[in-house]
């Protein structure tokens, strides 16, 4: 019975505003149509004429009909269309549908007698009708005067009622200062818990205490502890900050207010501060509860230190109101504030202090094991090929965020569907990673033979240097197929190091310069193909010298400056000149080192370049076949080799099992 009642269509709620609108619309219709209390507004042109002229026009056959008003002693003679120009000296389109002559008369009997004679003589064939005037002219004039005022007052009352929250839709110009936060009475309605957040074990552990406090506050209050007032989720884009906040809402089971930092900021002065106060007023009524502000840097940016700049800035007023509500003179017990940002260095120091945001929870890029967990979450809805190895995918995506991994899985599914595959295979994932890192493959790009040879020599230079430098990342494959804005690329399997040594950074710099060095040695000229390599090399060299203190002339000094309002460099012009000289020296040394390595392995480099020209894509096995085993084996390569051996053993075991099952079936058939 209850289910049947729920399935019945819901009737709209009664609202007095509909009646107001209907009444106003009806009055407007009667006013503009010209019909109210029997008043008929003139729609056509009229012209006053004497009684003699009236008789002459009727005798000439111009009259189509005559309307007589006995009370006003006035008649209207309507003119036939073909005589309009002659009577009114205007075109028919300019005088309306039924123009007429307005004539005053003395005796109604004489008018009737005249029209009867004209009808007998066939000079008048129209009709004769009568109308009465009962003083409606005064009422019509009064109505015409008062109607615009009544209409304006009605519309104003309607706007006022809507502005106070009683209108259709609940909005209005007077609700602009109301909070735009979306409230969930039960956070569990979102359907997201900590089980849906893969990786980020440290962040989940820190934020779990807030959930435990809301569920079991006595556990902490008995020991004298207080609940944290706020927690700030900090991390790069796509690492799952908003997902963690949703999981907190799903686990805590308390009212949850969610809004963006940009929702506070408007063009009207004082609106942001009003919305902050309204948000906390709603939260106090629902206490205990959680407020989540996404992208808080939109409203919490550091305030200007120059009084002449932004003294009455709307954003600063909003921030002041937020600071006061979070930890001001009043108390907001039972309200926990969560916020997320990827630009914590731009936030105001007063916002970050203890008492407002007691905790800063770092949500970093996932490591190898966490990427594996994230892959397992996003691979569930896909139809996977049994040969897909999650460990291999996790190693192929260093530096990827959770959003990037989700994009890889989706791109792999789209690529498999494009190839009409029944399952998503290993190659589809590799193509998806290449697509995201390098861009869309452009096989139709036209290149001359000389350009193709130059690109092959350039990429072979990168591969050769990385093969013979100890700390360079292990090579995966080299391609001269254009992708995005790049004409060629070399893919590596980066080894995730917690600390970077000077030797490792120099080896990476030497590998980046290998392409330009190969062009100079084996082509005799250089091209613009090394612009990206030179840019990365220059930035890395300046970072080593200015920030990491890895210079011979400027050792153990860091000139990093994190002040947003510092407009001067924290070093002199003399020091800047020393930096420039050191950067130039460091890059030139690695460039000469790259040329020396290439000259030592000149023949192998030539074979590698020719193989690239023929096949366009080569793999680490091809490089190993030319140069031999790599002198140094990194941890990533050891894991890769171990995984390859495990895959080979697993495939051999599956093949033996299939053969055994096949033999068993054949024996059964023979029997």
Task: Tell me the quaternary state.
Answer: single chain
* Mean pLDDT metric: 77
* Rg calc: 43 Å
Q: Could you estimate the helical fraction of the residues in percent?
A: 40-55%
The biggest sheet, with number of strands, parallel, antiparallel or mixed sense and barrel status, is: 6 strands, mixed
Question: How many strand elements?
Answer: 16
Query: Largest beta sheet: what is the strand line-up?
Result: 8-10-11-12-9-13
Low-pLDDT segments: 1-9, 35-42, 163-174, 306-311
Number of distinct helices: 26
CA(first)-CA(last) distance: 63 Å
Task: Name some characteristics of this structure.
671 residues; 26 helices; 5-stranded mixed sheet; alpha/beta; disordered N terminus; 6-stranded mixed sheet
Describe the SSE topology.
Elements (H helix, E strand, L loop, with lengths): L1 H6 L8 H18 L1 E2 L2 E2 L5 E4 L1 H9 L3 E7 L4 E6 L4 H5 L3 H4 L4 E5 L3 H13 L6 E5 L4 H28 L18 E3 L16 H15 L2 H4 L8 E5 L6 H12 L3 E5 L10 H15 L3 E6 L2 H4 L13 H14 L7 E7 L7 H4 L6 E4 L5 H11 L11 H6 L6 H17 L7 H13 L10 H19 L7 E5 L9 E4 L9 H11 L1 H9 L8 H17 L25 H28 L1 H14 L1 E3 H8 L7 H36 L1
Parallel strand pairs: 3-6, 4-7, 9-12, 9-13, 10-11, 11-12
Antiparallel strand pairs: 1-2, 4-5, 5-6, 8-10, 14-15, 14-16
Helix pairs in contact: 2-7, 8-10, 11-13, 15-17, 17-18, 19-20, 19-21, 19-24, 20-22, 20-23, 21-23, 22-23
């Amino acid at each position: 019975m209850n289910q049947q009642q729920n399935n019945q269509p819901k009737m709209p709620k009664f609202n007095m505003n509909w009646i107001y609108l209907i009444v106003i619309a009806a009055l407007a219709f009667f006013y503009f149509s010209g019909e109210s209390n029997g008043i008929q507004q003139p729609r056509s042109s009229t012209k006053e004429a004497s009684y003699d002229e009236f008789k002459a026009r009727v005798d000439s056959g111009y009259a189509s009909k005559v309307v007589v008003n006995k009370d006003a002693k006035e008649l209207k003679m309507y003119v036939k269309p073909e005589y309009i120009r002659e009577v009114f000296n205007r075109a028919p389109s300019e005088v309306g549908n039924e123009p007429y002559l307005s004539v005053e008369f003395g005796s109604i009997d004489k008018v009737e007698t005249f029209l009867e004679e004209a009808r007998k003589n066939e000079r008048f064939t129209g009709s004769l009708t009568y109308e009465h005037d009962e003083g409606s002219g005064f009422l019509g004039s009064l109505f015409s005067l008062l109607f615009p005022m009544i209409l304006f007052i009605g519309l104003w009352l309607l706007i006022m009622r809507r502005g106070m929250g009683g209108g259709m839709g609940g909005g209005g110009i007077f609700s602009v200062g109301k909070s735009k936060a979306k409230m969930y009475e039960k956070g569990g309605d979102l359907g997201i818990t900590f089980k849906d957040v893969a990786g980020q074990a440290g962040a989940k552990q820190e934020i779990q205490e807030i959930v435990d406090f809301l569920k079991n506050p006595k556990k902490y209050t008995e020991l004298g502890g207080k609940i944290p007032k706020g927690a700030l989720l900090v991390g790069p884009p796509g690492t799952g900050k908003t997902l963690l906040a949703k999981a907190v809402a799903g686990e805590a089971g308390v009212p949850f207010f969610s809004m963006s930092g940009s929702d506070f900021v408007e063009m009207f002065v004082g609106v942001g501060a009003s919305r902050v106060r309204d948000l906390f007023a709603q939260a106090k009524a629902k206490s205990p509860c959680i407020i989540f502000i996404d992208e808080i840097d939109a409203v919490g940016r550091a305030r200007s230190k120059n009084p002449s700049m932004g003294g009455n800035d709307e954003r600063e007023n909003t921030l002041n109101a937020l600071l006061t509500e979070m930890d001001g003179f009043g108390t907001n017990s039972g309200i926990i504030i969560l916020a997320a940002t990827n630009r914590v260095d731009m936030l105001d120091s007063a916002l970050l202090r203890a008492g407002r945001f007691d905790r800063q929870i770092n949500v970093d890029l996932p490591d190898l094991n966490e990427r594996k967990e994230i892959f397992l979450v996003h691979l569930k809805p896909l139809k996977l090929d049994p040969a897909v190895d999650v460990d291999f995918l996790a190693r192929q995506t260093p530096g990827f965020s959770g959003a990037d991994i989700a994009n890889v899985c989706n791109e792999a599914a789209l690529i498999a569907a494009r190839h009409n595959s029944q399952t998503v295979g290993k190659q589809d994932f590799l193509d998806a990673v290449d697509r995201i890192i390098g861009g869309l493959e452009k096989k139709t790009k036209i290149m001359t033979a000389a350009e193709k040879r130059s690109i092959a020599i350039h990429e072979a230079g990168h591969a050769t240097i990385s093969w013979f430098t100890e700390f360079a990342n292990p090579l995966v494959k080299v391609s001269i197929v254009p992708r995005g804005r790049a004409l060629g690329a070399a893919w590596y399997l980066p080894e995730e190091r917690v600390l970077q040594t000077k030797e490792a950074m120099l080896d990476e710099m030497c590998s980046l310069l290998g392409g330009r060095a190969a062009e100079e040695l084996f082509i005799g000229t250089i091209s613009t193909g090394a612009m990206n390599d030179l840019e990365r090399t220059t930035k890395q060299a300046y970072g080593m010298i200015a920030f990491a203190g890895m210079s011979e002339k400027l050792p153990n000094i860091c000139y990093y400056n994190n002040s947003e309002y510092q407009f001067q460099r924290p070093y002199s012009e003399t020091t800047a000149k020393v930096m420039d000289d050191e950067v130039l020296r460091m890059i030139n040394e690695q460039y000469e080192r790259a040329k020396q390595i290439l000259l030592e392995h000149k023949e192998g480099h030539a074979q590698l370049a020719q193989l690239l020209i023929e096949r366009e894509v080569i793999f680490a096995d091809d490089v190993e076949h030319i140069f031999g085993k790599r002198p140094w084996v990194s941890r990533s390569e050891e894991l890769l080799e171990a995984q390859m051996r495990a895959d080979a053993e697993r495939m051999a075991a599956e093949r033996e099992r299939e053969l055994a099952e096949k033999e068993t079936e054949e024996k059964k058939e023979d029997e």
